[in-house]
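Fold Annotation — chain and its backbone

Encoding — discrete vocabulary of local shapes
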Amino acid sequence: MTRTFTRIALCGAAILSAAACQDSTGTSASALTRAALAAALSSVPVGYGDLATSYVGTTTAAASSAGLWVGGGRDASFNRGELMGGGLQDNFAGAIGFASRGGQRGPFGGALNCTTPSFDAATERVLCADVTSNGVTSSRSAQYLTTAGAVQQAFDTLTTNSVNVQSKVTGTIVFNAAADSATARDRGKNSWGRGRGPVGRLLGDTSTILIASTAINSSSSRTTTGLASGSAQRTVNGTSSGQESTTGTSSRGSFTATRTVGDTTFGLIIPVVTGSTSYPTAGTVIRSIQAMLKYTNEDAVALVRREVVTYDGSATAKVSITENGTTKSCTRALPRGA
């Protein structure tokens, strides 16, 4: 590694504003450990893509090729000028347009996406069939309401005004370098974490994971109102939380790694503009990741980062970043600025 951990983790290659991110000369941990913890900010737990969240995550169906944070993260968008956890979803950035006739219904619009939904009268919710891949299971459901509050058994493009989506992801992923690593010929695309190297998972630049087991437990709930035909705006509120715990052995020795991820969305308002995109005009999204790594006979190293994104109706969102007690104020151009 040619840069210090603080530059990677706090700035993320000038993640938001060069003026808000400066180099630090802290030397509290080895370069290897810092690289591993910086990678913890670049992604979210496997299956987070099945949740209602502001993070860009991988789905349960992609669990076999997604990998975990201890894989290095050198190709992650966090190191290319994005927010942590894979970046900010387009729904939150004004990057999804409202179709003028049918088709895409704009940000946070439409029904729960599943192949064979079923209605459960006891819970008054529409259920998706569980999806299990590589030891991880995703469960999702939704409740559809009219403007008057009546429960609907299916989403209606004209009368459904409110959608509450609840999701849960649980399971254990087991990795064995001898069985799961890719060959040099396919350049790591089938390895445990695409782009992280052909021989197992890299921890920092030199330590290779040999065997690891990761337990995942994540969930979310999000409610969107203002979906009925003729609505002037949509309002979004929701939360997500995820826990990831890994134990294993590597070329550096036995290790334990934990990560806690979450976000909260409240009062997010998006005006409905037919045939165009629309920036959020109000609301706040709070995102946080906590990571800890410990090798046998070495001190544990921890990292905590919190991002607060605030919207005021302009094409620029205000961002406050607090990492290990230090806060920076930045701005982010919408929809996809750095």
Observations:
- The first strand starts at residue 118 and ends at 120.
- The helical segments are 5-11, 31-40, 63-66, 177-180.
- The radius of gyration is 21 Å.
- Residues 1-29, 71-76, 182-200 have pLDDT under 50 and may be disordered.
